[in-house]
Amino acid sequence: MADFKERHAEFEAQGVQVVAASSETLEDARKTVNASGVVFPVGYGIRPEAFAKRFGAFYSDDGTYLHATGFLIDPQGLVDISVYSCGAIGRFTAEDALQILTYRLKPED
Predict the structure, then answer these.
(1) Residue 79 Cα to chain centre, angstroms
(2) Position 109 in a domain
(3) Alpha-carbon gap, residue 21 to 66, rounded angstroms
(4) For residue 62, what are the domain limits?
(5) 109 falls in which pLDDT band (50, 70, 90)?
(6) Closest CA to 80 of 65, 96, 66, 64
(7) Is residue 4 pLDDT above 90, yes or no?
(8) How far is 94 from 108, CA to CA, in rounded Å?
(9) Which parts of the chain are beta strand (E)?
(10) Residue 51, CA distances (Å) to 18, 23, 70, 87 in order
């Protein structure tokens, strides 16, 4: 989330909203938001197994959290790009998203 927080103004400049969600409780999600200083909405209470079944994400062996999952949602509300990772690499970065948005939002010649 820190990556997206640092680049948040660039998303806003393109008219793009950044949101995050977590399997944390409301109390723990608030602690995370306060500690990280994110300025975009953060949801809470995601049920990892149910989410994974619906969207194909990975979740922990004990079922308590989702592994890194990122989506770029188009203006119609459909998933345009999804990125799933169960390790420290292969995550959707703010730079990735901004490059894709720059390409997708570029006026046609």
Answers:
(1) 12
(2) no
(3) 10
(4) 2-104
(5) low
(6) 96
(7) yes
(8) 24
(9) 20-21, 42-43, 69-73, 79-84
(10) 19, 10, 13, 18
